[in-house]
Amino acid sequence: MMNQVAALIFDVDGTLAETEEAHRYAFNRAFSEAGLNWTWNQETYRKLLKVSGGKERILAFAPDASPELVAGLHNRKNQIYTKMVDSGQVSFRPGVESLISSARAQGLKLAVATTATRANVETLLGARKAFFHTIACAEDVRRKKPDPEVYALVLKRLDLPADKCLVLEDSVNGVTAATTIGLKVVVTPSLYTKGQDFSAAAAVLKDLSGITLAKLIELKG
Question: NCBIfam families recorded for this chain (predicted)?
């Protein structure tokens, strides 16, 4: 069974780590510092997460915002988020570290397919960045999830067919992006994606704690 999978492809926000509350806090701090009376509560942010990309969410919330304002807010948000990660306020979800170690020991390639910014991804990964064969981020694609572009790019860089890879995701946008090009997906819903329609996924798990690599690959079917 193990030889049927040659690579694991991870989403980042909500999948590798429960990052979205940190992002929401950072957005609100950036808004406040800019003198804006915008506040994204959990309900508002849950709706905005249907839009992929931080700049895109700002525009979805405030369509008339200038490009300069959007870029400035997003840049400041990322600075605040980076400090939160560096101070240990964001950690990997249960079972993720163990799964990465097992995959490396078995000789599987590891990849990231996200439409988060490269700076945020590299901040979260830290030294673990070296474990990944390729990391595809927002800067690498024109269209964000649910468009499959980022997954197509990762497959090209891995030089592997879709049936030799398994994707770890947390959102319906991610599942749609991956399954559109034939990738199988195991979902671990996050705080903001619980209750979404994951019927296209191969399996849905609470998290990865206690899940061996062999079991995960078995779920791929």
Answer: HAD-SF-IA-v1 (TIGR01549), HAD-SF-IA-v3 (TIGR01509)
